[in-house]
């Protein structure tokens, strides 16, 4: 798990330190204070391949844009590297404004030569340093390269996942594909469904489509027709069952009925203790329900993210005891 995180020169963040992270970390604050950007930085730190990068860009529908790489840099200034440091293991990101090299020694020019079309991700820890290059050579195609030689490499499955309102269906489909390969996981998924509603018997994949089996209904129901709360619940649970170790949930309250919030939070507490969560919320119900669930000691931290008088992003941390104490006297913690 990550204990300390420092983000430098990434999007709206000039420099931000988040120390003493817990297993469950909740970020609150006023609008436009880079709460979602923190989740994106965490996902970028653990990015394994070009698909992970596209997922991060797609949170803001940027993967089709010619300035998608430049948009990652603070104030669009690529003269300074992005650096994401987690427990003294650092990711440094630079860009290349020139032509890119694709496997097979074929070159492709950028659509706009003033914009970068390749980024380099350098990972540093005590044992080793390695480099990953990700290139974009047209509106939709990304290439994953090793070093500067232009040779493609195999990608690894990612240990991190970002859940946002616009990717719930896509992420659930990918996770279910993996879950349904295991009978044990499939049975666990059935129990997850019943916990939400006793009328839901199971989820299945038929021709790359998620369907719901419900009691007293002969025909299967398309998952897309279910409520947003159930979709969000399954998206979170499918992340857990598919073995993700770092789960980022943007605006966890979106789609959830107030009666489901306590159950969802308790599920996060009760799941595999090796999974770390990073959650943003604007919702008072989310915070108030923390006083109604069974918390383990020092399991939750809350970070109030705010913009200081100089326009820089800072944070104030509340320990679990401080959080519960403030909630008990109805103090406003959301900024």
Automatic annotation (TrEMBL):
Could you say which residues form the signal peptide? none
Source organism superkingdom: Bacteria
Domain (ATPase AAA-type core) spans 211-288
- InterPro entries recorded for this chain? ATPase_AAA_core, Bact_Antivir_Def_Nuclease, P-loop_NTPase
Q: Which GO terms describe its molecular function?
A: ATP binding; ATP hydrolysis activity
Q: What is this protein called?
A: ATPase
């Amino acid at each position: 798990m990550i204990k300390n995180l420092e983000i430098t020169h990434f999007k709206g963040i000039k420099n931000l330190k988040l120390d003493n992270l817990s297993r469950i970390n909740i970020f609150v604050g006023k609008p436009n204070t880079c709460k979602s950007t923190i989740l994106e930085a965490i996902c970028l730190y653990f990015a394994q391949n070009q698909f992970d990068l596209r997922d991060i860009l797609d949170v803001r529908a940027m993967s089709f844009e010619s300035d998608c790489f430049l948009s990652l840099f603070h104030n669009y200034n690529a003269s300074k590297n992005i650096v994401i440091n987690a427990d003294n293991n650092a990711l440094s990101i630079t860009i290349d404004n020139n032509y890119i090299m694709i496997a097979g020694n074929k070159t492709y020019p950028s659509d706009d030569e003033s914009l970068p079309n390749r980024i380099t991700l350098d990972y540093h820890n005590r044992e080793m340093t390695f480099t990953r290059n990700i290139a974009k050579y047209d509106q939709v195609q990304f290439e994953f390269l090793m070093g500067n030689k232009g040779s493609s490499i195999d990608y690894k499955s990612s240990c991190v996942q970002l859940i946002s309102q616009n990717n719930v269906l896509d992420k659930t489909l990918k996770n279910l594909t993996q879950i349904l390969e295991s009978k044990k996981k499939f049975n666990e998924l059935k129990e997850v469904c019943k916990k939400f509603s006793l009328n839901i018997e199971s989820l299945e994949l038929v021709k790359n489509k998620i369907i719901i089996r419900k009691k007293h209904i002969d025909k299967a129901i398309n998952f897309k027709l279910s409520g947003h709360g159930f979709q969000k619940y399954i998206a979170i649970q499918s992340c857990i069952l598919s073995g993700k170790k770092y789960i980022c949930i943007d605006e966890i309250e979106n789609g959830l009925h107030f009666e489901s919030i306590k159950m969802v939070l308790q599920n996060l507490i009760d799941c595999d203790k090796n999974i770390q969560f990073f959650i943003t919320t604007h919702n008072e119900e989310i915070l108030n329900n923390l006083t109604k669930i069974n918390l383990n000691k020092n399991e939750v931290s809350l970070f109030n993210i705010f913009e200081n008088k100089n326009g820089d992003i800072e944070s104030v941390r509340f320990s679990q005891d401080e959080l519960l104490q403030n909630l008990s006297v109805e103090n406003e913690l959301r900024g």
